[in-house]
Specification:
Length: about 230
């Protein structure tokens, strides 16, 4: 079971101290086909990102030590308008998807954050939105994740031993937003990508199964199961 512990963080932007919860332990009982971990009990994803209750700076706990000036200026400036993400239902307890979307805005001004990092944040936002039954936000986050994963591929950010995984993930995200021809094309590229540790028969079988789902024009969430 997932368990949480209370910690106090100091915001590196506005210097506010606040209490939050971090993951103490978690577990795995499976995985969705876009790699979202399935756990028993509390979903841990919303608790990996923390949000300052005063200025709404959002980041992983390890990045609360210091921030670059560009990030600080953006958060404290007029262009940082998180109220479009934080609705009335989020005031008391900010939703997990909102935390990750706020984090995207903050990390996008950090010159150390790669397109792969931002793509992963949008992917995690989509996982949380799925748990929240917010299909519109899930699809929007998936679309933004696709754009950044594609950009990372074009810019050569993706290491050779990651190519098959990222291409598969792009195919799966395209399938979920209903772009089936693009999904099939990306699954084909994933199958032809350099063989790595994840090129074992089970992973190839997963590519084949999800390509078949794209050909059947399925967009629903699926889970990874034992594949011969």
């Amino acid at each position: 079971m997932t368990s949480l512990i209370r910690v106090v963080l100091n915001c590196p932007v506005c210097e506010t101290g606040f209490a939050t919860q971090r993951i103490a332990s978690t577990n795995s009982v499976g995985q969705d086909t876009d790699f979202r971990p399935l756990t028993a009990g509390i979903d841990p994803q919303p608790h990996y990102v923390h949000v300052c209750p005063k200025c709404n700076f959002a980041a992983f706990e390890g990045d609360f030590g210091a921030v670059q000036d560009a990030v600080k200026q953006m958060v404290l400036g007029p262009e940082y308008t998180p109220l479009d993400l934080i609705g009335p239902e989020d005031i008391a307890s900010i939703r997990g998807s909102t935390k990750y979307l706020l984090a995207v805005r903050c990390y996008s001004r950090d010159d150390r954050a790669s397109d792969l990092r931002l793509a992963d944040l949008y992917l995690r936002a989509s996982w949380c939105a799925r748990q929240e039954d917010d299909l519109t936000r899930e699809r929007e986050a998936q679309t933004n994740s696709i754009l950044l994963f594609e950009k990372a591929l074009e810019n050569g950010e993706v290491a050779e031993n990651q190519l098959r995984t990222i291409m598969y993930l792009l195919g799966e995200l395209y399938r979920r937003i209903g772009r089936h021809e693009l999904a099939i094309s990306m699954f084909d590229k994933a199958e032809q990508a350099p063989d790595t540790a994840e090129g074992e028969p089970r992973f190839v079988g997963l590519i084949e199964r999800q390509r078949a789902a794209a050909r059947a024009r399925r967009t629903t969430n699926m889970q990874i199961e034992d594949i011969a």
